[in-house]
Amino acid sequence: MSCWDILGIESTEDIKKIKHAYASKLKLLDLATQQALFEELRRALEHAKVQAQSGLQNQSLPFNSRQKPKAQSLVVTQLDDFVIQLEILYADFPRRIQLEEWQRLLADLPHWTLDRKQTISDVLFGFLLENYYLPPTILVYLEQQFAWGEQQLQLIKHYNETDIERLFALIKQPLEFPSFEFLQDLPSQLSDRYIELCWTGRQALLNNHFDKALNCLLKAYGIYKKDPYLLRLLGNAFERVGRKNQALDCYYAGSELVKDDY
Predict the structure, then answer these.
(1) Residue-range domain boundaries for the chain
(2) Angstrom distance (rounded) from CA 70 to CA 77
């Protein structure tokens, strides 16, 4: 049996597909009673990654599914598993914006040792410094689990201060996207770009930079057209540059989306 058979996918050089297959299989295992299957799955992951990165994914290379990982790798693999599941969750936008998914990711938190909890806290905080487009309820939930606010001075020693200030600002005064609930159909691969355009357009609108605001908001509309919050922003922008008919069209379209949802 090859590593690809164990992962349940065709051979590929796409590391994201390999990680996703691994995470899907991992969810089906009870690590307390199926340690041997976990070790086999873990070896398949590492073997597949090596083949993909070496351009050898289509070659039949020796793979011993019964060979155990090195003893020192147990804690490391647990951390790697968490990182893989974190990356996959964030990349899947409809799941990313559901609080229950983050609660599931941290379901074992009460049983973690202090050292493991601190390690996971550091990994997650570092990840959020670069991947922060999340609903306010999720950012607040994560901060409550790890009490990052109480560690702010310590965190500044290890991370960029500007990035830290931005993340804490988002936790304390979240992005005003009351319509995250309307973004379920937003394509995952374009989600961060869409939210960034909305946020930049809103900031430009607040600062009376109307050309920039319209440019960003129209680009966002080109990505996704079913967000009443974006339509409200566009209506505001059109209204403030005297394009009243287009403003009314946006306001009406936004109100129809909200009405259809209830």
Answers:
(1) 3-69, 90-172, 184-261
(2) 10
